[in-house]
Backbone:
């Protein structure tokens, strides 16, 4: 089964500029106004979930330019439906970002690159305040990979948010483990009054994580919430037909890691809920991405 991992996205570096140019022509048209009240918000009372932090992490497969406009509109529809406080996005390309900036005006954008493909964050205005951000390079990577880190304020509590798109393909396992070590070190070194959340397309296999190991104070949110089967596989060719792959491949490439603040007298968050998003086909007959997105919430304890 592992042999199909090779097809995931290994050629992207060579033709990302060509695809980005094509995408610039394809990503056109209007989208749902993200400044309007979302259905998710309308169902809640003002007090309900006021202290909950919600996020979506999603590899949007911007390098696939087929039906890109409709797929970008699909992403916007999910943002309206869930109204997440934080959005981690991977495999963005410049025209995709331009599209989102034009329509998602209720969010502040942070990008980890300007050309090729890269990661980004969206922070909900009025809910999450950006304090500072930085791009942490992976010293030995040969691809366009790094760790995007943002220090933010959420209801008076400091959070450290991180996202990354780690090295792809089975043959790059050693590089992935190095990248995971960088992430874990940054999470562990963060002061104890700060809550840390990492989310992204890690491309990790379980045996690679076991080899590196997680610090005692860091948890894999999917595992923490009981390893629910319905949100195990985020790259699933059994169901998702966006890629023409003859093999069935079901992998948990996309992951959320969490390190709680431990200092007394501050807001303490804990993982509360996780679900996959993007499971519905669009009118074009394709999905928003070849990856499912992860919706996750954290409640005050």
Residues:
């Amino acid at each position: 089964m592992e042999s199909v991992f090779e097809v995931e996205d290994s050629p992207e570096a060579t033709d990302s500029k060509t695809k980005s140019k094509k995408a610039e022509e394809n990503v056109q048209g209007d989208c749902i106004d993200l400044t309007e009240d979302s259905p998710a918000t309308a169902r809640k009372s003002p007090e309900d979930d006021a202290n909950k932090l919600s996020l979506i992490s999603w590899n949007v497969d911007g390098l696939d330019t087929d039906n890109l406009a409709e797929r970008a509109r699909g992403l916007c529809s999910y943002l309206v439906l869930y109204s997440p406080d934080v959005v981690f996005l991977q495999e963005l390309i410049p025209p995709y970002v331009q599209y989102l900036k034009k329509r998602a005006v209720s969010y502040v954008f942070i990008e980890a690159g300007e050309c090729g493909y890269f990661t980004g964050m969206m922070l909900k205005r009025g809910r999450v305040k950006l304090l500072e951000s930085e791009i942490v390079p992976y010293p030995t990577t040969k691809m366009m990979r790094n760790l995007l880190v943002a220090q933010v304020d959420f209801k008076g509590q400091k959070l450290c948010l991180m996202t990354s798109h780690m090295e792809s393909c089975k043959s790059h396992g050693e590089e992935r483990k190095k990248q995971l070590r960088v992430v874990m070190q940054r999470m562990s070194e963060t002061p104890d009054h700060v809550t840390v959340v990492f989310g992204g397309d890690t491309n990790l296999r379980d045996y690679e994580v076991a080899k590196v190991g997680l610090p005692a104070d860091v948890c894999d949110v999917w595992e923490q919430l009981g390893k629910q089967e319905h949100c195990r596989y985020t790259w699933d060719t059994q169901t998702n037909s966006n890629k023409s792959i003859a093999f069935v491949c079901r992998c948990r490439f996309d992951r959320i890691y969490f390190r709680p603040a431990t200092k007394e007298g501050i807001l303490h968050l804990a993982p509360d809920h996780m679900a996959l998003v993007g499971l519905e086909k669009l009118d074009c007959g394709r999905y928003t991405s070849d990856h499912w997105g992860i919706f996750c919430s954290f409640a005050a304890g």
In short: Residues 74 and 251 are 23 Å apart (CA to CA).
